[in-house]
Input
Amino acid sequence: MIFVLVNLVLFFSLGLIVFYTEKIRTLNSSTYDPVVQIFKRYPVLNASHKEAELNYSTFPIPGLLKTQTLEKETKSLDDCYGMTPQGLAITENYLFISAYCSSHKHHSVIFMLDKKEAKYLKTIVLKDRTHAGGLAYDAAHHCLWVSAVAKDHGRVAAISMDDILNYDMTLDDKPIRYRHTVDFPSIYQASFITMNEGSLLAGNFDKRENGAVANISFVEEETFDVVQEKKEEVIVPKKAQGIVFYKDYCLVSQSFGPFQSKIYVFSSEQFCTGLLNKSTALQTIKAPPYLEQIAVFCDHLYLIFESGAASYREKTAKFLTEVVAVHLPTLLEVEK
Output
């Protein structure tokens, strides 16, 4: 009898081992998609992700395990193991991701990806350890704007696309140069940025109070001469991480901590009133934690999460290591 019981226990134990071995093998296989597993908990976002009309609807974020950049003291090439993704900008051919070192020992960077192939191309080293919370592509000036460092006010810097395309960190071990900077005196920092109808917008993040978005226009498309900053800022919800425009809509991403993120959908008319109150949003879309900047290109919204960074992976089971694209007409239930 004891012999039978022992064999039954051994057989049952062997069955459990086989089951969990297969389970782990499945999770580690190429068929397991963490984006699918996480996004299925967010039906509205998931449905629009499935309808994405792109060659690739997810893009691996480079450098999460290790990034080669400049060390702050020696200014020599060094490996950083704490890069944290923040900003996002999309062009027809490229995808740009900004990131900062969580220990602040290394220069911030911008990762450049081939959008059509979803492949990493290069790392662009920035001149300082900026939080790099915002990125925006400016087609008129053929440049990439990035949040920069300034004392007591917002500042963004322009990097020409020609310089980006020609940049090679391994050749001269130097940061890329800034062609121009623009200050936003009415906000204390440029946490996130975007372009809208030729104007450059910068907003500040505040975890306790409402944030504000300032707007600057240029005299001519070809120059960096600035028309005076508009006196009235637009008030946005607290914990705002990004803002974009699509057709007659304005979308604001909101996130802080290991809690559910949100995307608030407003009308462009609401934006023009100067107040975006979450209670008057046309739509509130739930998203995974740690959502950062959002970006629009054509009919798609791109989302980036900082949860895949080393300093955040242990804080949530819903960590994402990819930029995820969703189909905006499906998300907003509008026609193309």
Notes: The radius of gyration is 22 Å.
